[in-house]
Amino acid sequence: xxxxxxxxxxxxxxxxxxxxxxxxxxxxxxxxxxxxxxxxxxxxxxxxxxxxxxxxxxxxxxxxxxxxxxxxxxxxxxxxxxxxxxxxxxxxxxxxxxxxxxxxxxxxxxxxxxxxxxxxxxxxxxxxxxxxxxxxxxxxxxxxxxxxxxxxxxxxxxxxxxxxxxxxxxxxxxxxxxxxxxxxxxxxxxxxxxxxxxxxxxxxxxxxxxxxxxxxxxxxxxxxxxxxxxxxxxxxxxxxxxxxxxxxxxxxxxxxxxxxxxxxxxxxxxxxxxxxxxxxxxxxxxxxxxxxxxxxxxxxxxxxxxxxxxxxxxxxxxxxxxxxxxxxxxxxxxxxxxxxxxxxxxxxxxxxxxxxxxxxxxxxxxxxxxxxxxxxxxxxxxxxxxxxxxx
Length: 391
Hints:
- This protein is of the alpha/beta class.
- It has a single domain, classed as Rossmann fold (3-Layer(aba) Sandwich).
- It has helices spanning 3-30, 79-84, 116-124, 140-157, 172-183, 203-211, 228-231, 235-248, 250-254, 273-284, 320-330, 351-356, 371-379; strands spanning 48-52, 63-71, 89-93, 101-105, 128-132, 165-170, 189-195, 257-263, 306-311, 359-360.
- Strand 2, helix 2 and strand 3 (89-93) form a beta-alpha-beta unit.
- It is globular.
């Protein structure tokens, strides 16, 4: 490929991703249903203040939130309930403390309302349930510290969660959970399930940081090109933070992690214009196996555990029929055999997850080649290190 064609490719990817970043910057405000009249659900405390942001490595300025508990039944946990309550709120509902508690953590450009269906379905299946309202603009370091505070307050209210807590993080929510478990060390979690989490970062974040270099006095807000959350997800930054947390915390080294990783055969299967742009950008950069936001190999936890491969775009992971068989395996619960299903021995993944694919991380997914590294090295335009993707 000649240099002129390479430059055109880089330019097209840059324009596509910049457009995606600007569009997503507005998505949080215009895609949500309007809030109807009414009052927020009553919180069980006036709010425990916590200041996050400004930490070493964080791109999020300091901000103070108040952690509040809201006992929300599945019928009460609605889009309106999430919108009415401020950042810092913990929604939860308990059968009894002896049952496992599933804590759902959303990713960027979405909020806890993305879990309304699985919150209801998980509770109906007999699980205790909880989810949290994080800062949609904060990076994973700041939101991880906020989540640590939320876990602390929740543990005081429901002390029986030790050893019974399963954190389920979608996208950056998996990193939020990892930071929180590293920060709040007294908590004993049973497992972390990551759904399309960028454990190896995303090349899109590198492009965003390298290409969009606005001067401090620019009249164009930097958030038009992505919030701190986006810009914090460079492969080098994510790898360093995750590695440091893992090396410093024995509890994280003992944590059971299940990585649900996804890819899609073509952009034709994606309904979101943002993910279409991301899919095109990642494919042009040499990562045809991706979910529209993160290369498939980068979604794999780099320190062991279990990997489940599914056919899904980045918005397609939050499905109860994907999560239930994984939980059955983690918690050693009996798995009823439905029509056409086979109950597999304990220690294997059952039902839909098993039919799609099962991989031990002893043989991780690897790209066949690394054209991105070769391209960028020859053009000498960006610094990019994707060694984490091959782990």
